[in-house]
Amino acid sequence: MKISGKIISMVLAVVMVFSLTVPAFAADRIENEQTPIIYIRGNGEPLYNAQGERIAAEIEDISLGGDDEDEEDGDSTLKTVIETSANILIPFVKEGLLQDKWDNYGKVVYEELSPLFEEAILDGNGDPKNGTGVHPNVLANAEAQSHIDHGADGIYGVYDYSFAFDWRLDPYEHVDTLHQHILNILEATGEEQVSLVSRCLGGAIINAYLDRYGSERLVKNAVYTETMSNGADLISKGFSAQLEFDSKAVQRYLGQMMHCGDTGFGVKISVPALAKEIIGTTLDMLTQTGMTGIALKGVEGLYDRLYKALVPALFHSLGQGSQPIYWTCVKEEDFDLALDIMFGEEGSEGRAYYAGLIEKILYYRERITSRLPELYKTFTEEYGVHIATVAKYGYINDPITEGRLDLSDGLVSLKDATFGATTARAGKTLSEEYINKRIAEGKGKYISSDKEVDTSTAFFPDTTWVIKNVHHNRFATEMNIATEICRGTNVTVETSRYPRFIMFDEFAKTWSPMTEDNCADLGFMSSVTEDPTLKTKLVSIISFVKVVFNFLLGLLKGEIKIG
Predict the structure, then answer these.
(1) What pTM does this model have?
(2) Which of 55, 155, 200, 423 is paired with 398 by a 20 to 30 Å CA distance?
(3) Paired residues of 501 in beta bridges
(4) CA–CA dist 107, 238 (Å, integer)
(5) How would you class 123 by CB atoms within 10 Å of its CB: exposed for 0-12, middle for 13-18, buried for 19 or more?
(6) Residue ranges of the alpha helices (H) in 118-196?
(7) pLDDT tens digits for range 56-90
């Protein structure tokens, strides 16, 4: 077939113009913008003992009325729980309540609980005991992957070069290995830089690595997703024994646990629908009438007498107290008190036993914690690292610290995870005065549609993405956002296809840009936000009586069966 020269010229012209736009961009994206991505997770890597058996590291689920448990294992677990509970409660009543003797109670709690988590607990130097750690095969596989060019097609995936490590240990114990991991990858791929993507506790690894090796400028992007590297109240206030008790927060948190039971993520309690209704109305009635508050006052009084013995015993028996990684979550203002609570005062036996661990903890504090956010400025301005954060909210942390009403992903507050965003309290919005002031300053785009978040005060306001109504333990779109950041150069919210504020549907598993029409809080967040009134008290009592009446009526009619 004959083709005229004019047509050929036109085709070539179109090709040339097109090559200067999309194809040229794509080629530049592959050849010059792509970087191998190294994923650094938090405490999700399973731990094993020297025999290769998986060991327990934490408790997360509470199941009431479940039907998928192994009967024999369930009976054994129930027996252990009953025996342990009895051994803890008997001296609590006999020596504590009746004789007001609490000095030895911490020892009792530790001796009863620590055997359940013995293999996850570290020694006085913060080192593994009895050969426990991440499975050698996992470490070997990660090392082997670092020698492979996974970007042969020009596209690097977020999980191509995961970094495996024993997450319990001091972050600085891993930075040399991570550095070699990076050198292996650069050699295998021929690239000059990598991108680091962390989740949760993994942010502490990025901090330690950039502190030691950042000046070598091998890191192009550092993406912190749902990070705890700026502190986490449950750990920071927990280790320093600064616990508070609030009946409304307890009710909201139990509602959150039941919601998590439905979604399957977070600290969850699984109950049948009827039980959920009974529990919910009972809690509301107790809170509205002040009965929960009275009970918590008694708990608070007991806590004031035994916290010095109980708090360190609990955290050490569960393992966190001896794990340096969790100490990276302790904020600067809580550090000295936390050291005294968890290890005893200077010159004590605890300080002597944990001397090696304390040295590691203090080194991280000196190098990282006490220098935030100055350190992030060094990373960006001196080392040329493009830093971004992806955080989540829609939940509350816990009901027993001063941060109990902070917006969070259920584990870390949104303020901390975003490096300083301003947030409303749970169930509230930012004041109209505050919002109008921000708008007048030209910062209205940083205010979320639900009027609960202002990211303009974050340390990196233009590279901060926020996802609502998704729990810390559930992956939503954060890794997609992280991947896009790592596949570009200096990607910001304005240049990203992902909006600054995102809504996530936990049941449909879909996301959408946040708007005024789709930004509603989850049900438990808006409960008990106001102080009780005569009307709310009466409504709660009537609802409670109605639920109990219907339950008893169902029993009499045979519609409800127990057992």
Answers:
(1) 0.82
(2) 55
(3) 466
(4) 18
(5) middle
(6) 136-145, 175-189
(7) 665 444 333 333 444 455 455 556 667 777 777 77
